[in-house]
Every structure is written in structure tokens, then in C-alpha cells.
Amino acid sequence: MKSNTSDAKHLLFSRNAAAATLALAVLAAAASAAVADPVNTTGGGKISVNDVAPTGWASTGTGTTGGAGASPENTYVVGSLTELNAATANHGEPAAPKLIYIRGTINGNESPDGRLLGEQDYAPGYDITKYMSCFLDNGRTWSDQAFDYCKKMRQLRQQGSNAMKRQIEVNLPSNTTLLGLGTDAGLVGANVVLHQASNVVVRNLSIESPVDWFTSWSPDDGDGAWNARFDAFSAVTSDHIWIDHVLLSDGRFPDSEAPRDFKNEPVIRHDGLLDLKDGTDFVTVSNSQLRDHDKTSLLGSGDEHVDKDGGKLRVSYISNLFQNTQQRGPRVRFGQVHVVNNYFVGSTVDPDYPMVSEAQGGSSYFIGAGYESSIYSEYNAFDYSGPGADESVTVSSYNGHRFSDHGSWFNGKDADLVAVARASFEIHKADAIAAATASGTTAPDWTQREFTSDAGWNPAVEYGYHALKSAPAVRNAVLNFSGPAVLDVEAGR
User: Fold this and answer.
1) What percent of the chain has pLDDT over 90?
2) Which residues are CB-contacts of 75 (< 8 A; sequence separation ≥ 6)?
3) Distance from CA of residue 81 to its chain's centroid?
4) What is the pLDDT of residue 238?
């Protein structure tokens, strides 16, 4: 639904003085240049959406302004999925600048007539227990003949997955600002996608990861794995994206409450929380919270995709909370990635999302250094608790040999993340060489490289920023001033 001019044209942000002082500490250099009246950055006055800009990689090149400057006709206040999709279409000009404000919670499973669709609406008769029973040998082999319903379950699973994709996908086109009104704005059960989009801003929203009722079991994926289809937020071949003061999580549907599979483990019904793929570039994720999720934030689609991802995937993670994120916080391939002033929290005994490091025999980690990645980490705080909690959870190397860190802390004490990354790289390198020798094959090219703490680039050369340099300051800034509701978006100002 299109707003009237008095409602939407002059929507403004407000902050109190304490929040502005701490939350903008990392952003100070960029903010002082971007805001017309610098007094507003520390005085807690009303700040116009058009006066605020990101720092980090999203600020470079052409910058990231979203739909700033959109005409009243291209300004919307929406409260349903139908209205949101109409707003993104923008009167047949989806790439024209547009401001879209969400009021309340929008459900991706809401049909045009207002009904909330469920599993049986997408694929009547589908039953995941019956689907699993058609795999023989404890999940190793699918058989259409195992039971008389197996072929039907296979067809229904695909039918339901395709129908659900058509329903829940929200495509944000170029030159869009998507903002939450007030303190309760959000999306649940939607698959937010940027595809070949440029200049997109998303702020002040809660986004709950969609539940994939039609997740598929892949016997040949390692020892067998569930592959859910729908990310909460993903960008594909897109550039200049700013995600700020957003909460992304599994919300009401933790993995622990999913049905059990062949191994008596939860069926995985969530895919990525915030994934950036296929040459996506110039992204800043700031003042946001990524919580209670397994596959959290993946950069790049595969080691073989140098043609798409080489020289791209430049992303800044600034002053975010990563809490109970079992892996990929982030997991980087190729990109020049800046990770600064983030607060990482996990426990080996969390009831829903336990983090068990490789040193403990698990696979959890916070930062993953993947193939040809160049990660510049600084002043990040890690708090990891529970029996066996150790520093190895901070960084894992997945074929990545460049990792730099300055000034980070583990459980309040100075941490040597470079040593952790180096040890992980050397272990995986030795394992890969041994495996190649045993099989008579050539070891992968990355095993010929030597680990280095020189990331090969410096974010201070690319953009201005100011980092907080004590663990208490980082914790305080992130815990009190990240996520939605810190920015108070009000109509009628």
C-alpha cells in the first residue's frame, strides 16, 4: 500500500545520546562526513534517513544510499507480503529509487487472501517421516520400491519445495531502502533475495529464518547431510549493500525442535542466515545480531568459482553480535573481509545450539578462513564457556592461508588468533597431503602455500573507521546498541 506524503516522506530516525556515542564509535569517520549536522551524531536528535551513510566496504566506490531521494510516489508503508511485493515492483519500475517501510510483522507464508500456508497447503499428503523411510541402509540409498508411497513422497517433496519458493521469496531490486517502523517490524518465514541488484539498504528489522518443510537428504554429502533450500537473506551477483541494525535468527523454530532423522539428530530445516554469493561485492554488515543458527554467513559458493568470486566478496562486519552460531560467522572464500569490533558468544552446552570446537571433536567455529580469502580481523571479543571451551573455536582454516588479527580477546584476555589460524591451516594441510598420498592423487594447490599473517590489504587504506580498543567497550557497544529498535523510526515527523 502506498503511503501518503505526510506519513512517509519525512520518516526520521532518533537515538539517545548514549546510544549514539557508543554505537557510532566504529562509524565515526564516515558519519562525520555523511551527516550534514555533526551535532546530531552525538546529540540524539532526529536524523533523516537521507543523512546517514555506512562505513566499511559499502561506502567505497559509488557508495550505498539505497532508495534515498525517492519521490513520494515511490515511498511505501507496507504491512503484508502482497503489499511488500507490490512495493518492490514499484509501478513497473523496480530499479527506480524507492523507500519501503515495514509496519509490524510480515509472514512469508501469508497468501494474498490473508491465510497462513503450511506444509500441507504446498504439498498435500507429504510426510517427512515417510520420506525418510524410503532411504535404505540407514539413509545411504533411496528406493522408490521400499514402500508403495516412496515415489509419491519424492514427487511431493519437490512439488512442495517449488511451491514454497514461489510463495516466500522476496526479491529486493536495485536502489531500494527497506526499513522497519517502530520496534516490532520484521519478516518471518520469508526468503529475502538480492539477485543482480545494486545499492540496497536494509535497516531496523527482525528477520526470522524460514523453515523448509521440504528439506532434502543427500546421502553422498559427507556422511550424509540435510540440505535446506531457503536462506533468511542472500545476495547473488549483487553489489553495494548495507545491512544495519538487523536481527537474523531461527527465532521460534530452533533446530532442536525439528523431527529426528536416521541418526536421531534434528532434521536441518534452515539454510544460510546471511549468505553472499557469486561475485557479490562491497557489503557492510553493521550493528546487527546473528543468533541461534547453524550455517550462519557464507561468502562464496565453492573453491572452484574463482571466475565469479575472485577479486570480489569485499565485506565488512562491524560491531555485530554472533551468538550461538555453530559455524560460518563468517566463512570466507576469496574475499577481502574486515571483521572488527564484533562480539562472539557461544557455549559447549547450549541446549539448542551447542558450539563444540574441532579440538573437542566437533566442527564449530566462529571465523572460517576459506580458499584464497584475505581476512583482516581486529579488536573482536570472544566469550566461549562450558566444559572444554578453548581458543580453537575462534578461527578455523578451510584451505585459507592468509589471516591477520590485531588486539582481539578470548574470555577477556589477550588472544593470539593468528596462532590459532596457523595451527588449523597446518593441520588441514597435513591431512590433505596425507590423503592425496594415500590415494595416489595430486594434493590440492592450496597445500603448496605457506601460512601468513599478512592479509595483503589494509582496510584503513580503503575507508575511514575508528575501532573500540577494549573488550568491555566492544561488549557494551554490541550488547546495548546492536539489532533493531536502537534506531527509532517514526512516521509523521
Assistant:
1) 86
2) 2, 3, 5, 8, 9, 98, 99, 101
3) 21
4) 98
Exposure class string for 256-270: b at 16+ Cβ within 10 A, else e: eebeebbeeebbbbb
Q: What is the value of pTM for the model shown?
A: 0.90
Upper half-sphere CA count for residue 352 (Cβ side, 13 Å): 17
Q: Is the pLDDT of residue 99 over 60?
A: yes
Distance CA(195)–CA(447), nearest Å, equals 34
Distance CA 344, CA 384 (A): 8
Helices (H), 200-340: 306-309
Residue 50 confidence (pLDDT): 56
328 catalytically annotated: yes
Give me the catalytic one of 328, 331, 333, 422: 328
pLDDT score at 35: 28
3-state helix, strand, coil in the chain (%, to 5): 25, 30, 40
Extract the runs of DSSP E, i.e. beta strands, from 216-364. Answer: 216-218, 225-227, 233-236, 239-249, 274-277, 281-286, 289-295, 298-299, 315-318, 321-327, 331-332, 336-340, 343-347
